[in-house]
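For practice. Supply one:
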Amino acid sequence: MTNVLVNERGAVLINKLLSIDGHENSISRVVTHAHSDHIRDLDKSLTTCKNLVGTPLTLDWLVELGYKIPRDYSIRLDYGSRISIGELKLELVKTLHIPGSSQVVVTDEDGLKIVYTSDFKKPGVHTPILEADILVLDAVYGNPNYVREFDEYIEDILTDLVNQLLSKGPVIIYGYHGKLQEVMKIFRDRGVIAPYVLPPKVYGMTKIAEKYDLRIRDYVLLGSSEGAEVVKSGWFLLFTHVSSSNYIRGPRASEVLLSGWEFKKPYRYLGSNRWLVAFSDHADFKGLIHYIINSNPKTVIVNSVRSSYSEIFANEVRRITKKECIVMP
C-alpha cells in the first residue's frame, strides 16, 4: 500500500522511496524548482539520498546557486519523460511558476496516481490540471480573501507601468530568482526594447535559462565595460534580487518591487519614486480551488508548511468540493 505523508519540514514523502521538496532518508530527492523553500535541507539530501531528480534547467540553476551536484548523481528529467524509482513511476509535468518548474506525478504498481502540484499559477491555461487519486498542494494563498481579480491582466499592467517609468529614466526591478527571468521575458514579449543590466548571479542564471529557449536578449553584466556604457546612457532596466540594495548612483532611478502579497490593487505608489506591483507566481485562492475541482481527486492533502491558513483552506475545500481534505503535518 502506498503511503503519502508530509513531514515537519514540508517534504512530501511517498513510501520510503521519494522525498519531494524537502529532506528525508529516502532513495531519491525530487526538486520541483529552485526557490529556497523548495530546496530546504538539500545539502542533507545530497549526502544521504542516492540521486537528485529535477528538470535540467532546475538542476543547472541549483549549481549556479552554489550547490555541488555531481553530474552522475543527478537525474535530469525532461517534461513528460518517465523513470522508475522502485515500484513507483515518476514523471515531471510543466507548470507556470518560474522557468524549470514542475508538478510531480507518481503512479504506483496498482495504478494509484499521486500528484504534487508544487507552486503554480493560471491552472487550466498555462498550468495543466492533472487528474489524481491523491492531490497534494501548497495553499500559499489559503485564505478565501486572498484573491486578485486583476491577475489576468497583471503582465500588461506591469509592462505599461515600466514603459511609463522608462520614459523618465532607468528602472530597477526587485524580485526573486526565477521570477526576475520570467518578467524579463514578459517585457520582451510585449515589445520592451530597453537593455537589461544584471548583477552577476542574475546574469549567470539568465545565461543558463537562455540555453533552455527562454529568449531574453540584449542584457549585459553590471560592472563590465559594456554594462558601464549602458548605465551611463541612463536608459535601461536593472533586475536584481529583492534583498539587494540600490546599485545606481547619481540621479535616482524608479524602483519597482514585485510582490505576491498585494490583493486590492494591481500596483501602488510607495513614495520616493518606488512602486509595488502585485505580481505573483502563485495561484490565488480561486485558482487553487479551480485546480482541485478539475483534478477531481479522491483525497486532497494540504501541505501546511508551505501554506497559509491551511485549516481554513481545508474547511473550504470540504465545503466547496465535498472531497476528503487532510492537513499535514
About this structure: DSSP finds eight helices and 20 strands in the chain.
